């Protein structure tokens, strides 16, 4: 036997306990995968298949009535960009985009304001919270009927402005009606999620900032907004996804087949109700793709730090290093560094603009 005997290391095998845990995990995940497959994947694949067929009717080539839906290939998608169908689709796409951008922006401003009011310690805070959350609790159909009465020709809106405006007839007046009604109803949703984020911020953080001489605006921009950003991003993302699928509010408030407020969801419903299932499936798939791309872009631009967990890696930067201009990576702003320094319990001084105060 040689002096230098090579000893092979033992193979890296999973223990029986690890295998049991892996098997249990698969058993627990399987029902969820099955439900997703039935509820999401199967209908999506069915819609893709359905979008390649046309509506029943007289075949222009033969003159006979089709008993089955004819195969038309990509014609339903081509029709989105030509003729009357293309004009209607582009109008619905434009309306959906306008409603999403406008309502989400307005609701974010109102929601953050509501959250700050509800978070403030004052008498009757419970009553104020209940009053702010009431619009969100009202069903959308009921809310649409209420606002339809308000914007009626003889409604409260015309009485307040002292003129007779037919809100549902005009193009931009109808859009403004939907934007006001939707913002009133769903701004409390953003406010509620933002309030949850505000309540997670320790009060000692604000007390330390006051001792260091930070005014209300600097406390808001350097502490409140950086620390409430994760909750606010989730609230805005959920609200944006909901606004892209807007249907019931404009449908009840203004009416069906109104070019001023018709959205992609309303267009899908109208095509399906008229037995044009192929074009309805094509519109639905385009809407699905639009929602997916916007959500993906929003998460990549606004929420990358939350998804990738970079925010957790930046925790624990000593305030002494922040004073010397230390940054763990280039995306760590002065506001983030200040807020995180307070969140870690370092309350020696308030750092604003990269300088000592």
UniProtKB/TrEMBL annotation:
Q: Which Gene3D superfamilies match?
A: MetI-like
Q: Which Pfam family is one of this chain's hits?
A: BPD_transp_1
Q: Where are the annotated coiled coils located?
A: none
In terms of SUPFAM superfamilies, this protein maps to: MetI-like
Q: How does it sit in the membrane?
A: Multi-pass membrane protein
Question: Which InterPro entries has this protein been placed in?
Answer: MetI-like, MetI-like_sf
**Keywords assigned by UniProt, alphabetized:** Cell membrane, Membrane, Transmembrane, Transmembrane helix, Transport
Q: Please give the start and end residues of each transmembrane region.
A: 24-45, 98-118, 130-150, 220-241, 280-299
Source superkingdom: Bacteria
Q: Where in the cell is it found?
A: Cell membrane
Major site of localization recorded for this protein: membrane
Ranges for domain ABC transmembrane type-1: 93-298
Give the GO biological process terms.
transmembrane transport
Q: Does the keyword Cell membrane apply?
A: yes
GO cellular component term, pick one = plasma membrane
The entry assigns this protein to a family as follows: Belongs to the binding-protein-dependent transport system permease family.
What's this protein's name? ABC transmembrane type-1 domain-containing protein
Q: Which organism is it from?
A: Gleimia europaea ACS-120-V-Col10b
